[in-house]
Structures are given as C-alpha cells and as structure tokens.
Amino acid sequence: MRCKHCKEKFVPKYFNHKFCMDKYECIAAFMVTVRKKMALDNKAKLKAEKLKWNKEKEVIKDRIKSHSELLNDLQDVFNHFIRLRDKDLPCISCGTMNQDIKYDAGHYYSRKGYSGIRFDEDNVHKQCSNRCNLHMSGNFAEYSIQLPRRIGEERFLALKVRRHIELKLSIPEIREKIAYYKLKVKELSK
Predict the structure, then answer these.
(1) How far apart, in whole angstroms, are the C-alpha atoms of residue 50 and residue 64?
(2) Taken in order 109, 113, 114, 115, is the CA torsion positive or negative?
(3) Which residues, given as ranges, of the chain have pLDDT below 50?
(4) d(CA 27, CA 166)
(5) What does the alpha-carbon distance between residue 165 and residue 44 come to, in Å, rounded to a whole number?
C-alpha cells in the first residue's frame, strides 16, 4: 500500500491505515485528516441535535399555548380552508373572479359579534380583501343577497337562528377542530 501523503510503499498495521507513520509530515497529515473528520462528525451531530431540539421546542410551545392563541390558530387554518374551498367561486359580495387580488374568508355575521358561528362554514365565504371586506366593511348588502343563493334559503334561515347561540370551545375541542381543518386543507390542496 502507498502512503496518502508521501506516496511511498509501506506495510499497514491495520486494514484502514492510509499513512505510513514513519515521517513527521505523514503523521501530521494523518492528524489533519482525523481532525477534519471529527469536525464534520461534530457538525453533523450538532445539526441533528439542533433539529431534534427545534422539534421538541415546537411541541412544548404548542402544549403551553393559551386559549386565545389556539383560537387564533384555529381561525388561521379555518380561513385557509374557506379560501381553498371557494377558490373557483367568485367573491360572495361583488362577484369578481380577478386572480390578481387577495381574497379573505369573509364572515356574513362578524366573528366578534356572533362568536357562535365564527367557525360555521355557512357563515364564511371567499370575499375580495381590499374592496369588499376592508373598504366596504364586508359589503353586507350584496352579501345578504348572494348568501341565500349560494347556500340555499333553508340553510340561510338556519344560520340566522344559530347566530345567537354562544360558542365556548374548550382547549381540547379547539385542538380537535384545528386537526380537522388541517386535514381538510390537506385534502383540498391535492
């Protein structure tokens, strides 16, 4: 076998010897190689530990979230679901289908005023963000006309009745709804 450093022939003591160990330069080259390998191993180990810690940190953060933080998480995933569900439909209020604008999940009955139907799929539909939802405060007049057409008169009347029911979700119920809507988002994203 030939030494990796000086290229002279030598008889290795072990099967994995690649340096002759007869000269100082060869020993030094061997030590450099060992240090580089150790540094790479340590770097890989540190990266794996960091990834593991980040995953654990996310689990811990999720476990200690407050009721309101979880409600906000549910609102985010619910709104994402609504936008995906209605992606091929026009804005519920003005009827625009413009692909170059942002769309929101617009509530017919407001989230704050009617918490019982905050996450009711009949109450929330795709709505153009800038014009109808923000500048026209939901464009309620047109929404009132279009909603019964979209969901049907019977479901619209049932929604009117449900709007007065108070909704108090426990933390496990919120987590269950988050998981449910994440699954629905995943199905619609395919």
Answers:
(1) 21
(2) positive
(3) none
(4) 78
(5) 55
Going from the C-alpha of 10 to that of each of 14, 16, 24, the distances in angstroms are: 12, 13, 15
The continuous run of DSSP H or E covering 188 comes out as helix 171-189
The answer to whether the beta carbons of residues 20 and 2 sit under 8 Å apart is no
Within 10 A of 103 (CB to CB), how many other CB atoms are there? 24
Determine the residue type at 88. D
Domain boundaries, the chain: 1-64, 65-189
Residue with tokens 């709007």: 163
Dig out the tokens for 162 from the structure. Answer: 């449900």
d(CA 39, CA 45): 10
CB 79 within 8 A of CB 102: no
Torsion of Cα atoms, 6 then 12 then 18 then 19, to 10°: -40
Residue-wise pLDDT tens digits, 97-119: 998 999 999 999 998 889 899 99
pLDDT in tens, 61-79: 888 999 999 999 999 999 9
* Closest of 158, 140, 149, 44 to residue 94, by C-alpha: 140
Q: Give strand pairing partners of 103.
A: 128
